[in-house]
Structure formats: structure tokens, C-alpha cells
Design a protein that fits this description.
The radius of gyration is 22 Å and the shape is globular. Helix 1 (31-42) packs parallel to helix 4, helix 1 runs parallel beside helix 9 (322-342) and helix 12 crosses helix 13 (409-425). It has helices at 31-42, 67-75, 78-84, 122-135, 184-189, 249-252, 259-268, 271-276, 322-342, 347-369, 375-382, 390-399, 409-425, 427-440, and strands at residues 17-27, 47-51, 86-88, 90-94, 101-105, 117-119, 139-142, 144-152, 155-162, 167-177, 192-194, 201-208, 221-226, 229-235, 240-247, 281-282, 288-291, 295-297, 301-302, 305-307, 313-314. The strands form four sheets. Strands 1, 2, 7, 8, 9, 10, 19 and 20 form an eight-stranded mixed β-sheet that branches. Strands 4, 5, 12, 13, 14, 15, 16 and 17 form an eight-stranded mixed β-sheet that branches. Strands 11-18-21 form a three-stranded antiparallel β-sheet. It is an alpha+beta fold. It starts with 16 loop residues before the first strand and ends in a 17-residue tail after the last helix. The protein is 35% helix and 25% strand.
């Protein structure tokens, strides 16, 4: 096998066409792609990992879950993540319908060891994981955009172009799509389906000198409801704070001023948040907008490919599950690839289990996300009691403890029973909330004139 040039930049020598071969070709250098590439390279596979941009690159999705910690340990990067992270021990909930604020900690969950995580700049985390894949033996290319993947019975031919114009071609036994919301293979196979039950958009920016919680709570994420959706407030280790509004599309359609002015007007609708930002400065005067539409693909695997993280499905980021679900799918995906390459007779059963795993996490989180603006759920978050251990089960879910066999599922079902019981007891309020939700998720068409930031898994 000829040796390719391992990195690319606009100043790199131009190559008209290079053809290579590998065992596994991974498209996308976010958490999912970098994780699976590192794991497969450690198995002794010939792995190529490509990223269309250059690290570090801006990305949203900065809040991690306690369940991420074990995955960082297994990758051997926990100490590096800890150095760039802001410790996060829990969540603050702020509601305009309640005078008090609710504080919960991950240590209140079923597994008391899942007690903390970090807030991180994604540009730093993603680069860290990408470099780790190279350290573990993967060949990594930046500024490499895949143009086409052609499958056949023996694998696939991948056509790509470097950002200096050089063309590259690889012959791979297996291809992994970790392109995030670019959904390369889902688009190719036309198997991507918009989720009809959730439809939202997001506005966000980064601030200096925002007022944070005190003491141990300083690094906690704050979730603040407002009339048109909810805000995140994520403190980062360098003193900046990420602030974003996830809102219904109809609200963004009302904008008749600059995006910055509209963002500040939106912040003013949440008095607690506005107070915390009264002395803050918006970094680079920059506000971003993104279409935050939930979707899922009909399948995640084939005989010689799989989809990881957001390349398979994307859900509302309220519970910060994106990076964890992406990385967990990468660990299971590495096992699936090993089966496909070494034990093809076992692949059908392995694919069935992987498909079920890929749906489990989004399904469990989505039940809460679809109802989070309902007044019943809001009350339950603002008054988090623990009958039948339901609070412990909820905190375990929010910590990402959904794959280890923790015996919390009976209590989580009881949480849902209580939800339905309270909803029936307040039938008129529940119906009003349901009608409002149906109004909120109307398809208002594609956003026009906004900067769309893609999110990778």
C-alpha cells in the first residue's frame, strides 16, 4: 500500500489523483468518527479518518454527561478532557411559572458514582479526540471532503477532494458515516425521515462576564424556560459562557431586525437570564442560528457500512445527550465492524443488536423532550420528589446511565405513570398544553437568510 500524505492544508503540495486502500474508512472527525477510528486502529486495522474542515473548528454542543467519563477513560484521554473542562455536577431549572429555582445533582441518581461531567469547548474536545485517533494509529486527513461513496459486494470506493484541489480515492472494506447532520449516507440512500413530533430552531452566542451560580454549582448547566422555548446557559473553563435559545420555528419567523437584536430581545423574555447577562459582553458580536430539526434514519447498518451519532439520528439537545450517544455508538460500532470483517457469519445478529441500541437512547430521551414544555412535566422538574425512586431514575437518565443495566427502568416507568395521572387530573391544562405543542411544531419551511451551523455526532 502506498503511503498517503497524512495531513492537508491549502499550502500542501497538489496531487492530481491518489488511490489508496484501507480496512475501514471513517467520514467525519467529530466525537463519533474520532472515537471509532481510534478503537479500530487499536485493533490493528488500517483505518483512514477524514474531516472536511481543519481542527480546531467551531462547534456547538458543549455540555457532557457523567456517562461520558468512562468512555474517556477507555480511550485514555480523561486527563486531557479534565484539563480543558469546567466541572459540572448538576442542573438548574428556571421556569417563568414558578418563583423558585430547582437544583438537581447527578449524584442523586441510582448509580452514585456517576456524579459529575464537564462543560467543554467543542473545538478543543473534538481536536483532542481527532489527535488521539492519529496517536492510536489511524491515518487522519483534514480538509478532505468526501464527494461520493460507491458500494459493491466487497466494500466501497470513496472519492474525495482535498481543500487544495487534490483528488483522493480509497478502496475500503467498510465505511463509517460519522458526518453528523450532513448525513452523507442517509441522504445517499434517501432513508432520512424528519421527526413529525418535534421541530425547533436555535439562536446562540458566547459571552464574557456572565453572572454564574456560586460554589460547586458554578459549572452547572441552567435550563431556563421562556414563552417560546427554552434557554441553555453553559459556563466554560476559560471564563466564557455559552448561551442559546431553542425556540419554535414560528417565533424565529417573527424576526424583523438583525439577528443580534432579535437574540437580545429573546433573552429579555427570560428575566433571570437577562439579569445574569446584564454586565456581559457578546464575544465577537457574533450570534448564530441553526435549524434544529429532529430526524432519524430508517436503518443504521448495512453489510459494509454503518451510521454513527447524528449521522443516524438527531434529537433536541435539551439533555446534552449528543456527544455521549455519538461516542457510545462508536464503541458499539467498533465491535460491529470487527464482526463484519472477522466473523461475517455473525454479522446479521450483530446488526440487529446494533440497530436496537441506536434507537434506545434517542427514544428514552425523546419521551421527555417532546413533553418538556407541557405544564405537568415542568411541574415535575420544578418539584422533583422521589416517590418510588422516580427522581433517582430521572437523574440516572440525565446522567446518561441507560446502557449499563442499572435497575432504574421500573422507577422510570412509574415516573411516566405519575405524569399521566397528574395530566388526567388536570385535564383542561393538559389539553391546552397539547394543543399549544401541536401549534408550536408546525412546519414553517426552511429558514431563510440565516447562518446554518451543522452539528456533528
Amino acid at each position: 500500500m502506498s503511503q498517503p500524505q497524512v495531513s492537508s492544508s491549502s499550502g500542501a503540495p497538489s496531487v492530481s489523483a491518489v488511490s489508496e486502500s484501507c480496512d475501514v474508512f471513517v467520514i467525519g472527525g467529530g466525537p463519533a468518527g474520532s472515537t471509532v477510528a481510534a478503537l479500530l486502529a487499536q485493533q490493528g486495522r488500517q483505518v483512514v479518518l477524514v474531516e472536511k474542515e481543519h481542527h480546531p473548528r467551531f462547534h456547538i454542543g458543549e455540555s457532557l454527561l457523567p456517562a461520558n467519563v468512562e468512555l474517556f477513560d477507555r480511550l485514555g484521554v480523561r486527563d486531557q478532557v479534565e484539563k480543558i473542562g469546567m466541572p459540572k455536577f448538576g442542573i438548574e431549572f428556571v421556569s417563568p411559572e414558578h418563583e423558585h429555582r430547582s437544583y438537581v445533582e447527578f449524584a442523586e441518581g441510582w448509580d452514585k458514582s456517576l456524579d459529575s461531567a464537564w462543560q467543554v469547548r467543542r473545538s478543543e474536545l473534538d481536536e483532542l479526540l481527532f489527535r488521539n485517533a492519529a496517536t492510536r494509529g489511524a491515518q487522519t486527513f483534514e480538509g478532505c471532503k468526501v464527494r461520493d461513496v460507491a458500494f459493491d459486494a466487497d466494500g466501497a470506493t470513496v472519492q474525495a477532494v482535498m481543500d487544495d484541489g487534490a483528488k483522493r480515492s480509497w478502496r475500503a472494506r467498510f465505511v463509517i458515516d460519522a458526518t453528523g447532520r450532513d448525513t452523507l449516507l442517509a441522504n445517499k440512500f434517501r432513508c432520512k425521515q424528519k421527526n413529525p413530533d418535534h421541530n425547533s430552531t436555535a439562536l446562540f452566542g458566547h459571552f464574557t462576564n456572565a453572572e454564574r451560580l456560586e460554589g460547586k454549582k458554578e459549572g452547572n448547566i441552567s435550563i431556563c424556560w421562556f414563552p417560546h422555548g427554552w434557554f441553555w446557559f453553559i459556563p466554560l473553563a476559560d471564563g466564557t459562557t455559552s448561551v442559546g435559545a431553542v425556540c419554535w420555528p414560528y417565533y424565529l419567523k417573527t424576526r424583523e431586525k438583525s439577528l443580534k437584536e432579535f437574540f437580545y430581545d429573546t433573552i429579555a423574555l427570560c428575566p433571570v437570564l437577562a439579569d445574569r447577562l446584564k454586565n456581559a459582553t457578546l464575544i465577537d458580536d457574533a450570534v448564530h442560528a441553526t435549524g434544529n430539526f429532529s430526524y432519524s434514519s430508517t436503518h443504521a447498518t448495512g453489510d459494509n457500512y454503518l451510521l454513527l451519532g447524528d449521522a443516524f439520528t438527531f434529537i433536541d439537545p435539551m439533555f446534552s445527550s449528543g456527544v455521549y450517544l455519538a461516542m457510545h455508538s462508536a464503541f458499539d460500532g467498533a465491535e460491529l465492524v470487527a464482526t463484519a470483517l472477522d466473523q461475517p457469519a455473525e454479522l446479521a445478529r450483530a446488526r440487529e443488536g446494533f440497530e436496537a441500541m441506536m434507537r434506545k437512547g434517542p427514544r428514552e430521551y425523546s419521551w421527555f423532550i417532546y413533553r418538556v414544555t407541557n405544564p405537568t412535566i415542568r411541574d415535575m422538574f420544578m418539584y422533583p420528589g422521589n416517590p418510588f425512586r422516580v427522581k433517582e431514575a430521572l437523574m440516572s437518565l440525565l446522567a446518561g446511565d441507560i446502557y449499563k443495566g442499572t435497575p432504574m427502568w421500573g422507577a422510570l416507568r412509574m415516573f411516566k405513570v405519575l405524569y399521566y395521572g397528574i395530566s388526567l387530573a388536570n385535564f383542561r391544562r393538559t389539553m391546552a398544553g397539547w394543543k399549544q405543542h401541536r401549534f408550536n411544531i408546525r412546519d414553517m419551511g426552511a429558514l431563510k437568510g440565516e447562518t446554518i451551523q451543522k452539528s456533528e455526532g
